Amino acid sequence: MAAVDAGHATRGHQTVSAAGTLYGLGVGPGDPELLTLKALRIIRTAPVIAYPAPEHGDSFARRIVSGYLSPAKHEIPIRIPMVSARFPAEEIYDEAAAKIDEYLMQGDDVAVLCEGDPFFYGSFMYLFGRLAERHTTEVVPGVSSLVACACVAHMPLAARNDVLTVVPAPLDEGALAARLEGVEAAAIIKLARHFAKVRRVLDRLGLCENARYIEHASAANQRILPLNAVQDAEVPYFSMILVHRRGQAWR
After folding, report:
1. Domain limits of the chain?
2. Distance in angstroms (rounded) separating the CA atoms of residues 143 and 126
3. Which CATH number is associated with domain 146-244?
4. Angle of helix 89-105 relative to helix 124-131, nearest 10 degrees?
């Protein structure tokens, strides 16, 4: 059998670094007790932690796990502007991937924190796309905001043969209406400054009475409100509207 290069192993037809392992960790919606045991183990043992952060201020993902971090860890904050345009965010992910690559090539494991679940609209997927072909990678699922919002609002998402539709609020008003017209069950995500537009569409479709607003699900500052009690200017990015046409999924 041919010898494998000391620095690399093969996986299928790809060459994969045998150095450090890249972990994408779902850290849940906000409550530290919703962190999985597997994610906690990796957070404690990985020498390098990376996480998304706003341009200014602290990282929500890091805050969730802060009680488990030691001063000995190397940290890579990935400061991302909260804008819909692909640039400069693409450049920021390129730079972050390059930094992470350096640690992996040195033999250090790197754990990338991701709010909710890494592959449900998670920022980790953009690093995965840049690094997974070159490095051994493991993705650890987390409690997503979708199920967290349903649980704290006591509002089951769907039942029997219901079709659950996930709709990003930044869509234009016409596209939102087209996606929500005739919907059986829906989760509308990424609300923030788009809340007023979404509420107009739901009102026009007669869905407001069967909708519930949730923000920061499971966190200390969690709020659950009917739509008519929400002030447009106060809606954060980490918020969601759940809708069920029957009002309650079990009906």
Report:
1. 8-143, 146-244
2. 19
3. 3.30.950.10
4. 60
**What does the CA dihedral 176, 177, 183, 189 come to, rounded to 10 degrees?**
20
Give the pLDDT confidence of 127-169 residue by residue, as tens digits: 999 999 999 999 999 999 999 999 999 999 999 999 999 999 9
Is the peptide bond prior to 170 cis by the omega test (within 30 degrees of 0)?
A: no
Q: Which fold has domain 8-143?
A: Cobalt-precorrin-4 Transmethylase; domain 1 (3.40.1010)
Listed in order, strand segments (DSSP E) in 64-194 are 74-79, 110-114, 135-140, 164-168, 185-189
SS3 9: strand
Sole residue written with tokens 């602290």 = 58
Partners of 168 in the beta sheet? 189
* 4 secondary structure, DSSP code: P
Looking at the DSSP bridge assignments, the partners of residue 114 are 26
CB 223 within 8 A of CB 30: no
> Hey, what are 16's tokens?
């994969």
| Amino acid found at 248 | Q
For residue 74, what pLDDT is reported? 97
Residue 87 carries which DSSP code? T
Angstrom distance (rounded) from CA 185 to CA 246: 9
End-to-end CA distance of the chain: 63
Share of the chain above pLDDT 70, in %: 90
β partners of residue 20: none
Q: How many CB atoms lie within 10 A of CB 228?
A: 10
